Amino acid sequence: MNGHRWTPEELLAHEVDCTLGYFDAETAWQLGRAVLRAAGDHDQSVTVRVARGTQILFHAAMEGTSTDQDDWLRRKLNTVARFGHSSQYVTQKLEPYGAGAFEEFGMSSAEYVLAGGAVPIHVDGAGIAGAIAVAGLSGEDDHALALEAVSAVRASTYRGTFTAHESSGIPTIRSVDHVAYTVPDLVEAIDFFVRYLGGELVFTDGPFSGDYMRTKLNVDPSASCRLAMIRMGATINLELFEYQAPDRRVEVPRNSDIGGGHLALYVDDVDLAYEYLTTVPGVVVQEGPNGVAESSPVHGQRWFYFLTPWGMQMEITSDATARGYRGLPGARLALPGTWDYA
Asked: Per the domain annotation, does 171 fall within a domain?
């Protein structure tokens, strides 16, 4: 691992990632062991401590470490307890104060330290329940090693712990895998997305039928379907279904209908995309390209809607500022990737 500097938003996101389903002495042991394993995998020697309040639940030092690191761990954990954030976050936050940070915040260097490596452990719905601290590397690498350990243990703390009221997100979630749409003619839809929108057909599958159509897909038990998976650039997979069912509705929902929706594609030149789509057979291009008000969170965006030959709603969008849209404090939409991929 190499030293790394994170933005404040990234460091706060790290703390969200350090949320466990529960935290007890056994969890602390697992966290400490995870640090030792990760350090060994990286050919590093560190000292690690996991604490709940003032109680030390796990402490271990690898060969090649020193007793000085015990004091670093104590002071890092004190920093987490004082500020309620990782010691890396606090270190970067107080950098503008320079050498005067300790005096400004009434801290003693004998009790606190500005160095990364200690992160708070949150329990879902209960707040901070403890902390893990690593010493022996650079502050940034100590921080990264602590995060790696929490990530290794996190999923196991959620198994069998859920209740109906919990809504903090799906444990171990990584990304959106795909979006899916039902189309009237699978062959026509594949041809459209591949020929005119630049998608790549990855596979087709089916037909599928049987009573499990009701229990697994929530459709009529006598329904059948075929599907195709199309890769749309480097970041999105698009799944297309064609169903045969006795109660199937054939009207494409409007944007104002419950269940309506649209698929938006990002382009660098919205005017060129508009001109191109007006030449595609069967496509209906709506008014545009359109801008947005300066007061809008997406100021700089230009966009327009269009309908596929079978009536599916789609959008083309672009951000003239190339900076990504922001919203609530610290929140930011995911930025588009490139279309090409290996």
From this structure: no
d(CA 189, CA 186): 5
Do residues 237 and 298 share a domain?
A: no
Sheet holding 19-20, edge to edge: 19-20, 118-123, 127-135, 47-52, 55-61
Looking at the structure, do residues 207 and 272 belong to the same domain, yes or no? no
DSSP, residue by residue, 252-267: PPPTTSTT---EEEE-
**Tens digits of residue pLDDT in 283-340:** 999 999 999 888 777 778 899 999 999 999 999 998 866 555 555 555 666 767 777 7
Residues 6+ apart with CB under 8 A from 291: 301, 302
* Res. 81 pLDDT band, cuts 50 70 90: very high
Does this model's pTM top 0.85? My answer is no
Do 31 and 143 lie in one domain? The reply is: yes
Q: Tell whether 339 is covered by a domain.
A: no
Domain closes at, from 126, 157, 188: 157
Task: Calculate the CA dihedral of residues 74, 77, 83, 85 and round it to 10 degrees.
Answer: 150
Residue with tokens 């171990």: 172
pLDDT in tens, 241-271: 999 999 888 888 888 988 889 999 999 899 9
